[in-house]
Structures are given as C-alpha cells and as structure tokens.
C-alpha cells in the first residue's frame, strides 16, 4: 500500500519540490509537558499491569504496598477498588474529582448537602479516591449556596398538629362477615378495631 501511494501522480508536486524543509528549531531546549498529570494510583496500576514495584520503598513499605494492592484490580483502561463493604468502585484521577464533586453536591440531584453526605453520594455513584471525604468537606466550604443555607432552625420546621386523645372504647368498630365456605371448620370472620 505504501509503495502504491508513493507512486500516485500529484499535480502539485512541482510546487512542493520548490519549498525547502526547515530543519532548524527556534528553541534549542525542549520543555517538559507540565499539564500531564500522574494519577495517584500510578504505582498500583503499574504493579497490577506489569508487576513493577515502586523503587525506594523499605521492606515494610513493600509488604504494606503489596497488601494494599490486593484490594485493587485493573480492567484496562480503568482501575477499580474493592472497598470494605465488598462494593467495587472506580478509582478516579485528580482532574475528574472536581466534576464529580460538583455533580454530586450542586447538580440537579445534588441537594447542597454536607461534606459527609456528599462523599457518601459519590461512593454510592461508584467512584473512589483516597482523600474523598477531605475533598468533599473542602468543596462545600467554597459552595456559596450551601454556606448561605446553613442549618435548619425552628422557623424552618413544619408546625405539628396535636393528636386527638381518646379513651379506651371511645372509638371502636366491629365487622362481622360470613358465612363462607368452610375452611378448617371456620365459616365466619369477626374483626374488632379499637
């Protein structure tokens, strides 16, 4: 295929031959990509995918790392964690957390609840990251609507109506039905309500 494509006739070939390719770089240095985020679970994913243990760990840290990795499994392209209640949740990167927090707190089904309740909604949605509860509490402190709402006071509560108290047999009823076809020699039903 490549040989065939290279032999196709191009009417603009003469114009391309006249343009020289500039091989010089305007900058002599290459800069590292700063926007590339390394997820918090990179070491875990590397261990599960390629059996690579992070360098620089002591013997105890290696044992703890291997013990912690038992709760995770890799299903390309996602990493999942089996939590204490045996529910499987997807591990998310730092860049995804802000959108998840916004949706579970301020979204149409959010409700502007407290940090703990927002964190539980995130867990119910099937997401996980290690600093979930801290991030949820930090997020609600920056939510203007939540801060203005505050706690429910007595003036927000609905008025309660008093129950009507009755003496025994003040309100009672009896219902008598039958005869029905015999069922274990019983033909009638008597219901008494106090």
Automatic annotation (TrEMBL):
Residues 93-149 form the Integrase zinc-binding domain. Transmembrane segments: none annotated. PANTHER family: ENDONUCLEASE-RELATED. This is Integrase zinc-binding domain-containing protein. It comes from Gossypium arboreum (Tree cotton).
């Amino acid at each position: 295929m490549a040989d065939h494509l290279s032999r196709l006739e191009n009417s603009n070939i003469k114009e391309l031959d006249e343009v020289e390719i500039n091989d010089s770089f305007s900058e002599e240095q290459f800069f590292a990509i700063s926007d590339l985020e390394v997820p918090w679970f990179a070491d875990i994913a590397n261990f599960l995918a390629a059996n690579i243990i992070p360098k620089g760990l002591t013997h105890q840290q290696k044992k703890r790392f291997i013990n912690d990795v038992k709760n995770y499994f890799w299903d390309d392209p996602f990493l999942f964690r089996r939590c204490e209640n045996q529910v499987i949740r997807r591990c998310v990167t730092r860049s995804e957390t802000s959108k998840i927090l916004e949706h579970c707190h301020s979204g149409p089904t959010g409700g502007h609840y407290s940090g703990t309740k927002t964190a539980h909604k995130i867990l119910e949605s099937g997401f996980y990251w290690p600093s979930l509860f801290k991030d949820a509490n930090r997020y609600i402190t920056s939510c203007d609507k939540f801060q203005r709402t505050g706690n429910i006071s007595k003036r927000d509560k609905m008025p309660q109506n008093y129950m009507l108290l009755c003496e025994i047999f003040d309100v009672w009823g009896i219902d008598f039905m039958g005869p029905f076809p015999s069922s274990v020699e019983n033909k009638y039903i008597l219901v008494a309500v106090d």
